[in-house]
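Model the whole thing, not chain by chain.
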Amino acid sequence: DAGVTQSPTHLIKTRGQQVTLRCSPKSGHDTVSWYQQALGQGPQFIFQYYEEEERQRGNFPDRFSGHQFPNYSSELNVNALLLGDSALYLCASSLGGRRYEQYFGPGTRLTVT
Amino acid sequence: GENVEQHPSTLSVQEGDSAVIKCTYSDSASNYFPWYKQELGKRPQLIIDIRSNVGEKKDQRIAVTLNKTAKHFSLHITETQPEDSAVYFCAARLTGTASKLTFGTGTRLQVTL
């Protein structure tokens, strides 16, 4: 039973560039949530995808966008990167409906220079 | 929106002692409270959770208690072991907000020999 996977593991980008991060949910899960975790802080909710649509969004600018594919995998795109976007980006998968448990992937460490 | 406060930020206990981490939440409509353990450089791992219709839940050496009236919940770890050393995060889910979790700021637990 495959857990949540994310790619790439690490990424270094320059200010102003664009980045795409990828996530495959746990087998059987249909919902993907993305979180940003700055160093020494708790994860902050970016948005959630269910049935290929953004279902809910946190307090993040439009530079952050996403997509969910028919196989439930998801992408997070960040445009016009800022130094402050440097963080660990975590994907969490869950089963829609009344199951609330979320399981995290290993994350992508993004460094913006 | 929901706000979660977590205390203490750091906690040092001797092996075999108990550890208690406390969280408070702001919105009485929150109905699900998970706890995650995050080791250095690793993904957050769900260790225990509780729903608002339950006052206490136990799983071997860990337990969570919920006081809905006071809007606080706590993690209790008994007979601590060195492998319990990690950062622990509490979180809360607001009813009707899909699976969005609002996290506390984390507690760094150090179990010393």
